[in-house]
Amino acid sequence: MTTLAPPTADLRRGVAYWWHSYRMMLRWQLVSLRLVLPVTVMVQVLTGAGFVLALGLFFGQVPPRAALFISTGVLVLTLVTIGLVLGPQLIAQQKAEQTYDFLWSLPVPRTTAALAWVTTNLVLGVPGMAVALAVALWRYDLDLHVSPAIVPAVLLTLFTGTMIGYALAHALDNPMLIGAITQLTIFLILGFSPINFPADQLPGWLAALHPWLPLAPMADTVRAALTQGVVEDVTRSYLVLGAWAAASVAATALILARRR
Amino acid sequence: MNGHDWSLRVRDLVKVFNQKVRANDGISLTVEPGEVYGLLGPNGAGKSTLVKQLIGLLAPDAGTITLGPHDLVADPDAARQLCSYLPQAQMPIASLRAREAIDITGRIRGGDAGAVIRRREELIDALDIGEWRDTLGARLSGGVRRLVGFAMVAACPGRVVVLDEPTNDVDPLRRRLLWQEVRRLGDAGVSVLLVTHNVMEAEKAVDRLAVVDRGRLLAEGTPSSLKAEDRGRLRLQVMLAPRADTPVLPGFVEHHTRVGHNLMTVLPEAEAAHAIGWAQELIGLGLAEEYALGATTLEDVYIRLTGDVDAESPEEPV
């Protein structure tokens, strides 16, 4: 006697279906990362703490303003590297191992898979961020003023970084290309973005460009929520970052709905 | 059933890649509810392209795909809810225990928790994979991982189950168990689309089948109806001696193929005695080691239609 239920005629739609799918995709993603999750969180924690300490070595005696920039910037680094690097790498791996088609044949709204991935990144990223902040406080004796705005700033930064990486990785078919772009992104973020240093230390044209790219506004919003008198116009940063978030969501929706 | 005819209907399906490769070139077929339907063809025939349009991963350039009242081309969400898919590649379950993989997929596919657990246990028993219930996917052999993949798609299958080479790497005993479960899916009213180039296995498992090559449907019917044209013929299989050249064939041989040392010939029934005499003569001369004379099989039909002898031709474009 089979326990197989007869197939139904009705399609699932609506909020309950969306919520169920979101919970199932989150469970699938967390369980799928089970073997690498502890290592990934550990690497995030060590790189966060490591960055705080290593960047301080550039100076010897770290000026208070530099310490503030480094400490707050490293939080943004730990958040965006997950979304811009780990996500695309996993998707590239799915494409290389040809498991991508199965995952995208699952009957869930595309938005649930994307949002479950943002949630997974939050789980992966927050411990590293917290430890980096603790190490910075211990190492540089910072004068921090933490405001409730830290919650939206961190969420918006993580969300936007994750969605940009997600859209990029889904848009490209070649896993090698995804890997190469990921490497380049990390290099540009570390070397040429006003995350760990003020924008006025960059060449003029690059300093003028950054307020329109997502990284500087990410750093501004997080920094403004942790300090006083360092960031001047945070409203503008929220607007630019919000626009990037909206654009990345739209791009992801278009790319995921696309059938070749 | 629910007032609808739940046949899967594909009509005049065309899919062109890079504006020149016609991967599907006007394919039409119908799979009835409860039917196990084989899609046979060499690599590059267009089978995977057809399947990916069915489950909403590719959009056709022309033609329609409907399932019951649903237009699967216009509504890929419906396609994914109604069709479950076992791809030829392994499932991404390295970090999942076998039972978890089945449970989560069953739940994603809309089964409620209790029903999915009962169904999981039934499938685990039926496929005889109980000893790996709590084993991580990464530690499973290829064949067991394949069976877990089948259980994942069969836990809450929807209306159509697409199985792409489901028995790859599976041992002969469990292959039988797998085919039994495929049949039970059919008995429950699910249409099963079996994609394969394993003709011998398909012959036993399917109700009907289509032979596809170069994007076109070459023939369709039951295994017996497809073999009907070969009625009155026999197949003589001769195992040639190592390094022997293909011998001069007697006039009664209608067509032949050679794969390695295996020479397969098709001949009229009336020539059976002559054929045996010829084969014994080859053995006597040391040119052959053994022979077998029997009824023609679906494989002979397949080879006649596709000219494909070992199913190892270039890869499909997608």
Helix-strand category of chain B: alpha/beta
The CATH topology of the largest domain in chain B is given as: Rossmann fold
Q: Report the radius of gyration of chain B as a whole number of Å.
A: 22 Å
Low-confidence stretches of chain B: 310-318
The largest pleated sheet of chain A is described as: none
Q: Helix segment count of chain A?
A: 10
As a percent range, the share of helical residues of chain A equals over 70%
Average predicted local confidence, pLDDT of chain B: 91
Of all chain pairs, the largest interface belongs to: A-B, 37 and 58 residues
What portion of residues of chain A belong to β-strands? under 5%
Distance from N terminus to C terminus of chain A (CA atoms, Å) equals 42 Å
Oligomer category: heterodimer
The count of β-strands of chain A is 0
Task: Describe what you observe in this structure.
The complex is a heterodimer of chains A (260) and B (318). By secondary structure, chain A is mostly helical. Helix content of chain A is 73%, strand content 0%. Chain A has one domain. Chain A has helices spanning 14-32, 37-57, 64-96, 100-104, 110-140, 150-171, 175-192, 204-209, 215-226, 234-257. The N and C termini of chain A lie far apart (42 Å). The mean pLDDT of chain A is 88. At the A-B interface, helix 1 and helix 4 of A face helix 2, strand 6, helix 3, helix 4 and helix 6 of B.
Descriptive terms for the model:
heterodimer; A: 260 residues; mainly alpha; 10 helices; B: alpha/beta; Rossmann fold; Alpha-Beta Plaits; six-stranded mixed beta sheet
What is the element layout, followed by pairings?
The complex is a heterodimer of chains A (260) and B (318).
Chain A: H1 14-32, H2 37-57, H3 64-96, H4 100-104, H5 110-140, H6 150-171, H7 175-192, H8 204-209, H9 215-226, H10 234-257
Helix pairs in contact in A: 1-5, 2-3, 2-5, 3-5, 3-6, 3-7, 3-9, 5-6, 6-9, 6-10, 9-10
Chain B: E1 8-17, E2 21-31, E3 36-40, H1 47-54, E4 62-67, E5 70-71, H2 76-82, E6 83-86, H3 98-108, H4 113-126, H5 142-154, E7 160-164, H6 172-187, E8 191-196, H7 199-205, E9 208-213, E10 216-221, H8 223-227, E11 233-240, E12 255-259, E13 262-268, H9 272-284, E14 288-295, H10 298-306
Parallel strand pairs in B: 3-8, 3-9, 6-7, 7-8
Antiparallel strand pairs in B: 1-2, 1-4, 4-5, 9-10, 11-13, 11-14, 12-13
Helix pairs in contact in B: 3-4, 3-5
